[in-house]
Design a protein that fits this description.
This protein is mainly alpha-helical and about 200 residues long. It folds into 3 domains: about 35 residues, no CATH class; about 80 residues, Rossmann fold; about 70 residues, Arc Repressor Mutant, subunit A. It has a 3-stranded parallel beta sheet with strand order 1-2-3, covered by helices on one side. A hairpin with a 2-residue loop joins strand 4 and strand 5. Helix 8 packs across helix 9. The longest helix has 13 residues. The relative contact order is 0.10.
């Protein structure tokens, strides 16, 4: 726990502690990171989870190892499908072929855990409510989400987001899916808005 790797994670480490979270390790202090320990860590990640959502995975990746541990532990494994041209989607598509649950929106994950779907048609009241929301400061948003977050000053569909930020629709779907799960945005009808 005293070797933070990569070093850029030092801030995340501090924020976890400051916000009442816990840092755990099965290794004694002074243990240095190596590739074998990352594979073992994936066993803990899947073990602490209700299920595992795989967004991207190359043919051979640590993500696929996490999915295997999850299956062994009797957890549900969900995958977002990927374009056959996307090298980082080969692993997810292979997992789907092997029986992982194909999902395209957060509600499909929630349904498996019998959590009611909150999606509904967009209304004027929803848009009025959206205007009252104070968005999170951009510097509090993970770098990988900022291009999407900063354009959601108005409700946009995934295809509109894709056109505005000039990114592949598959990448947009992956990002907005994770942003919904992290509570940064929500979907109203077919549009995404910040919360």
């Amino acid at each position: 726990m005293d070797y933070i790797y990569p070093k850029e994670n030092r801030e995340i480490y501090k924020k976890i502690i400051e916000n009442g979270g816990t840092i755990i390790s099965e290794y004694k202090p002074g243990t240095k990171p190596d590739s074998e320990k990352f594979r073992q860590r994936n066993r803990i990640v899947s073990g602490l989870s209700l299920g595992v959502l795989i967004v991207e995975a190359e043919k051979r990746s640590g993500t696929s190892i996490t999915a295997r541990y999850a299956e062994e532990q009797g957890k549900l494994v969900f995958c977002i499908p990927s374009s056959i041209e996307n090298r980082k989607g080969i692993g997810t598509n292979n997992l789907i072929k092997k029986g992982a649950i194909l999902v395209q929106k957060p509600s499909e994950v929630l349904e498996k855990y019998e959590i009611k779907n909150m999606d509904h048609a967009i209304t004027i009241e929803d848009l009025d409510e959206q205007d009252k929301i104070t968005p999170i400061k951009l510097n509090q948003i993970a770098e990988k989400y900022r291009d999407i977050y900063e354009i959601l000053y108005e409700p946009l569909s995934a295809s509109e987001i894709s056109m505005k930020i000039k990114k592949d629709i598959t990448e947009v779907y992956s990002k907005v899916f994770l942003m919904e799960i992290e509570g940064l945005i929500k979907k109203i009808g077919n549009k995404y808005v910040v919360i």
